[in-house]
Amino acid sequence: MCGIVGVVSPGPVNQLIYDALLLLQHRGQDAAGIVTLLGNKIFMHKAKGMVRDVFRTRNMRALPGNAGLGQVRYPTAGNAYSEEEAQPFYVNAPFGITLAHNGNLTNAQKLKAELFSADHRHINTESDTEVLVNVLAHELERTTRGLPLTPQDVFSAVGNVHRRIKGSYAVVALIAGHGLLAFRDPFGIRPLCIGRGEDGTIMVASESVTLEGTGHRLERNIAPGEAVFIDLKGNVHTRQCAESPQLSPCIFEYVYLARPDSELDGISVYQARLNLGESLAKRVISTVPPNEIDVVIPIPESSRPSAMQLAQLLGLPYREGFVKNRYVGRTFIMPGQAVRKKSVRQKLNVITSEFKGRNVLLVDDSIVRGTTSREIVQMARDAGARKVYMASAAPPVRFPNVYGIDMPTSSELVAHGRTVEEVREIIGADALIYQDVEGMRNAIGKLNPQLNGFDASCFDGVYVTGDINPEDISRINEARVGQEDPLEENTTRLAIPNPQEA
Fold first, then answer.
1. Which is the catalytic residue, given 2, 193, 250, 458?
2. What is the domain-level CATH number for residue 201?
3. How confident is the model at residue 45 (pLDDT cuts 50, 70, 90)?
4. Is 241 a catalytic residue?
5. Three-state DSSP class for 343?
């Protein structure tokens, strides 16, 4: 999961991209980068860290131009601690191309071998983004026969890219002297939308909140398999470049990843979470009688809409029982189990009066590794709760994810190979209630009947690309991002307040 943005504007874009990346900070806290284009010249600055720490005044002044792109990184492959693997990536031929992407290529190792042996291109990092930019560059070189570069050339190249690469990818790329390219994988697993400002600025971004928060109007979502090429005069060219596209977005975007004020593929993330709460309420009734629950308390932040809806439907008080430290990042996207466990009590503190002597129902958006849930249940007990029930707005996460979410190994998933009762014992709750897969699909899917379905592979084990087997998962795990910094032991990387959680 990363956040990407691309802009073509009548005026300078450096500040606009910076502002857009702040609105995408929840999608990645490890590194950030901005590239701008002035005529044929490319300017770039990228580094590890949060947006506000990576870019200083001197860096912004060194990013002139009226077109550009940016990315915030959450690594799922390669090395999380390598400056070289911060995005965007650059290749100088043909034309000069910079590229950033959100997602995960499932055949990156095979492509890397092809690029070396057949395409004669060198890959210098473990990043699948470097693989992707070289595949695009090679296909552009093949389809282009000199200048000028036409949109048709670009679309032909993207079509070839679709045929070669597998997995999930939403892409923004700058072609020096020509314009901005954006495209999405044939299943639309990772989100991408396009909008326009009153001054003629055109922006593409991972989430609609990026457009709205910078004064642009959301026009539409880029279709799965579609490519959009915006030339430097602001003319927009589009084409469907995939052979059999179907819209099957990642359902975890709605459960947890995206901001609640975003709209993804025609679905309000906030409304999706309200619907999940409604569906979850029915599951709670079948497990714990509402008269045995004194209060409903969300685990901040993503679960709030679901918890509020559940409490309203069950006629129960809704209370805030946890106060969040705004200066600690989301524990789910911190590398390393020791770091993740250590940070739970750093980022949450209880309001004792809301727990003491009560039977509390805690509502979370999902339970992935179980580490946070176990700590929070114990915190509730320490605060004097008589009984602690736990409800998850998402079903049990039982299967590895290969499309860009950092939960790829089965051994890390608390629900893998275990019954709900066994998970309940591990986290220490008096009762555990999960959403069911069909309930989740229906709750979100009914908000846009146009969808073909969702990728819900981490819940049901069905991978929408149809090319994933146990051997592939093992191979992908080998390329997985390292979990500990060799230079630092058990340290928590601090984050600015998550825009989603402010």
1. 2
2. 3.60.20.10
3. very high
4. no
5. helix
